[in-house]
Design a protein that fits this description.
Order of helices and strands: HEHEEEEHEHEE
Number of strands: 8
Shape: globular
Distance between the termini: 22 Å
Strand order of the largest sheet: 5-6-8-7
């Protein structure tokens, strides 16, 4: 729908992945479920890329977290954070700790790693994961607006940084 509505308006933007969706997961089972659902409701799409990647324990600014080993070469303007499962994160050779315990929670650092590549106006939606959102907000360096919808347990983050120029406007 967006492609039909906006393709002519954004043809001059320097974006290689216009109207493409990238799905990253560390469980092949959920990638397959997503593919089947997508095909069922929308037909086979070439604009959706499914990426399998292991997720390992890591650190960010000295704090324990986890990260995907493989990420696509893309600059997203919308990110939906809902994974990975805390019981499916691999240990790193450098870190002798894992969060596969009910008292612990996922703490992804992937968005932090690409923060300065994101364009103003980028939106991040997190399905729950309040501790991870707090971790992101405490470590972000740019101006983010945060809204928490308690009824749906969703966090919405908006990159409110200054425009990068005419094309960004």
């Amino acid at each position: 729908d967006n492609k039909i509505k906006y393709l002519k308006k954004i043809k001059n933007l320097r974006r290689n992945n216009k109207f493409e969706l990238f799905v990253i997961d560390n469980e092949k089972k959920y990638l397959e479920i997503s593919k089947v659902r997508l095909n069922k409701y929308f037909g086979q799409s070439r604009s959706v890329k499914f990426i399998y990647s292991k997720n390992i324990m890591s650190t960010w600014n000295g704090y324990l977290c986890h990260e995907f080993l493989k990420t696509p070469k893309v600059n997203p303007d919308f990110i939906y954070l809902d994974g990975p499962d805390q019981f499916n994160i691999n240990n790193s050779k450098k870190i002798n700790f894992n969060i596969d315990h009910l008292d612990l929670m996922p703490m992804s650092s992937d968005i932090l790693k690409i923060e300065f590549f994101l364009v103003p106006g980028t939106i991040v939606v997190s399905d729950g994961r309040s501790a991870n959102v707090e971790f992101l907000l405490k470590n972000f360096k740019r101006d983010w607006i945060h809204y928490y919808d308690r009824d749906f347990d969703q966090h919405i983050l908006y990159l409110n940084s200054q425009s990068l120029g005419k094309l960004n406007d």
